[in-house]
Amino acid sequence: MPSVLRSRPRYLRNVLFGFMAMAVGVLAVLSAEVRHEMRLFQEEPVDNVHWNLTQLELDLVLLLSAAELALERDEPPLDELRKRFDLFYSRTDLVRQGAMFERLDLEMIIRPLIARLDGFLQRATPLIDGSDASLRAALPALVEDVQTLRMDLRSLSIRTVEQYATQADLRRAELARLLRQVAATSAALLILLVALLGSVLYLNRQAERKTAEVLRVSSRLQATVATALDGVIVAGLDGRVLDFNQAAERIFGFSRDEAIGQGLDRLIIPARHVAAHEAGMARMRDTGKKKVVDAGRIQITAKRKSGEEFPVEMSITSNSGPDGMIFIAFLRDISEPVANERALLAARDKALAAEQAKTNFLAVMSHEMRTPLNGVIAAIEIVGRKAVDPSQAKFVRLAQSSAKLLLRHVNDVLDISKVEAGHLALSDSPFELAPMLASLTDVLRPVAAQKATEIELDIGPDLPPVRGDSFRLGQIVQNLLSNAVKFTDGGKVVLKAVLHPQGGGMALLDLSVTDSGIGIAPEDLERVFEDFVMLDPSYGRTDAGTGLGLAISRRLAEAMGGQIGAESEIGKGSRFWLRLPMRTADPAAPAPAESARTTAKPGADGPFLDLLVVEDNATNRTVMEEMLRLLGHRSTLAVDGREGVTKARVHRYDAILMDISMPVMDGMTATGLIRAEGLSKDSRIIAVTAHTMPEELERFRGAGMDDCLTKPMTIRDLARTLAAISAPPSPPPPAASPQPADAVLDALRIEDLRQALGADGIRRTVAQFLRDTTATMDRLRSTASSPAEARALCHELAGAAAMVGAAHLHRHFAGLEAQLRNGDAKALAAAQADTDRLWADAAAALGALTKA
Questions:
Q1: Do the beta carbons of residue 444 and residue 485 sit within 8 Å?
Q2: Quick one: 398 and 456 in the same domain?
Q3: Using alpha carbons only, what angle is made at residue 538 by residues 535 and 544, rounded to the nearest 5 degrees?
Q4: 247 and 354 part of one domain
Q5: Among 192, 217, 242, which residue terminates a domain?
Q6: pLDDT tens digits, residue range 413-471?
């Protein structure tokens, strides 16, 4: 049989070669005819004829245009016309020769045109070569000749195209016929060749295919099973092993010979699972239902030859074999991964337990430390009020600063433990953003000024009220501002806030703190938000801290549903941003904003009321600031009405203490501007003045002021007036005993100052009063002082004297002010001696007071 298979292809191959030679001959003859026809197409000059006729017509058109242009002008230049005629004349030589037209059988068509061209040239050439005058005279006739010739030329072009198209159609038909013959012959030969070739291949490979297929499948299956990394076990429907690869030998400890023919229940299945295995096999034999077959990867317990049980991951599939259904199981020993997973879970549980223990420890310790620490701070405060010796006061202030810093660190640790333990409770109350942010920047301005750094607040006056936890928001912003000031020397810190409406009563707060400080390296931008991380690359740890501020800020931001991040460049500064979703509040009655400095009762750690003091006299400002501090209120100072208006517009104050007579802008004008617009337009405004006439007090109220404090005011008067803002009024204090009318100093006022300022404070205040008053009296004695200026100076002196308790001097200057207001221009000169005497008495009494 093999010899027959070998001889038959040889005979058929010879026959095939004969047919191929015949096909080549036929195709050669047909190809020659095709090439002949193609050459005729290529040699036909039709394209040249078209081009020459087109160019001839173009030259004629240009000649016609030149003639018509010359005809329209009175004295036209004729050079262009002659040039166009010469070009046309040269082009006609190609047409008059006629050779190309003969080859295309167009001689009969072109002959009449050549005759008309010759006639035109004979008539036009003498005119072109003649004088300009004769040419101008003949222009109309020349134009008419050219137009007629153009029509003839266009007719010739059309007839040429038609004639060529007819001839081309005939040649294309002939060429198509030849090509069809070639195609038909080629197709017939190709079909015959394919048939013969197919027969040879079929007879030659039929036997080889069967053998190769069997060998290939067998070899592939053996290689797959033998080299598989997973164990492969093939079993029949009776549960006996048909194949057992090398990986299965390593996993289970049985050799292939030992495993072949054995039942799976005795070989690899633990005794406690044999019953379930046999039930499953019986179900498949009886019903054909498969529970684990083709069900993907499953995890079971298997048994080694030694009897050791271990976890395996298994996948089973089924197939039909010669002897019925077979099952192929792929198994993987997962003892090590399972052990690793268990160890990892145990380690995780230990770590969580340790973290929880740490959190509980920190919470307990922080709480237990705060109780004695608050006692220490309170005791230091009491000692500080009674300290008289300057050195004692210095150490008391140092102890207060250290104790408060320690309390802040303890609070930081407590906040961390609260967040991690899930015990952080967030409040939800309405507040206004603008005043809260303004108060945060105001607190840090003195610290920034010591480093020659400017703090700028970039917010609009139209931020709507929102709902949320203002204390925690303030805590985040205070941390960001404190860090910016800490690492910025002689630069700028900008706090910017924008509120983007989101619809549905929600808004997105986009807040950023940008500084021009030392910057942060890119690899440290995420580390700064980790616990106890402190980066200080250039200042040598001159600033204290626990490294918890930013970590707490991130936890608080995430607890409120927001995000916090940083951008920075070394040497150029940093930008920390906070994006926080917030609910908008009813603008009708927003609650006063709380900042990170908690509102407290008088005497506690934190302001009770947020107050603006507008006073031009430095002594009065110092005294009022100290009084408010003693009462537990927070105060912001402004040196004139204009500065007071500016501050009141961007920050909401609980009340404004407004002096009346001030340079730049008086108190009544400032009150009107504050009432017109700004965040403090609805705040209480309290006049602080030495004017006591009823009509003047009524005029103050008419300007928009709510109440009035008369200089000299006592700390009791101030406390009573402010108590009406924050709480129901308390019973008035017992009346003090009257003072002698000629007393140089007001004893009650001096006692108030002693309680408010202490011995050190009185000395500083009196020294400042003496300096300021000496300078003001020098201006008052100047002859250049106008009556209006003199009246203002007397008012300023009366107010300052009242504030320090110089009662006699206060009454004297108040009387002089009244006389000048009534037009008595000589009052000042007449009272000069009394002024000097009373000033000397007051200065001596105040000097003695500071030495007591």
A1: yes
A2: no
A3: 55
A4: no
A5: 217
A6: 666 666 666 666 677 888 888 888 887 888 788 888 888 999 998 886 678 899 988 88
**Threshold 0.70, pTM exceeds:** no
Mean pLDDT score of the chain: 77
Yes or no: say if 260 and 243 are a contact pair by the CB < 8 Å rule: yes
List the CATH number of the domain containing 459. 3.30.565.10
62 CB contacts (<8 Å, ≥6 apart)? 84, 87, 88
For residue 273 the two structure tokens come to: 């699972």
Cβ atoms of 487 and 576 closer than 8 Å: no
Helix (H/G/I), strand (E/B), else coil: 326: strand
- Residue 825 is classified by DSSP as T
Provide the domain limits for residue 89: 7-217
- CA–CA distance from 368 to each of 107, 112, 422, 742 (Å)? 125, 128, 20, 58
Residue 591 included in any domain: no
Q: How far apart are CA 507 and CA 378, in angstroms?
A: 42
388 in any annotated domain: yes
625 with 488, same domain: the answer is: no
pLDDT, tens digit, 9 for 90 and up, residues 54-73: 777 788 888 888 888 888 87
How many domains are contained in the chain?
Answer: 6
Residue with tokens 């003001």: 776
Instruction: Tell me, yes or no, whether 385 and 243 share the same domain.
Output: no
Contacts of residue 71, defined as CB under 8 A and 6 or more positions apart, other chains included, come to 139, 140, 143
Write the DSSP assignment of 654-682 as a string of letters.
SEEEEESS-SSS-HHHHHHHHHHSSTTTT
Residue 433's nearest CA partner among 678, 726, 675, 652 is: 652
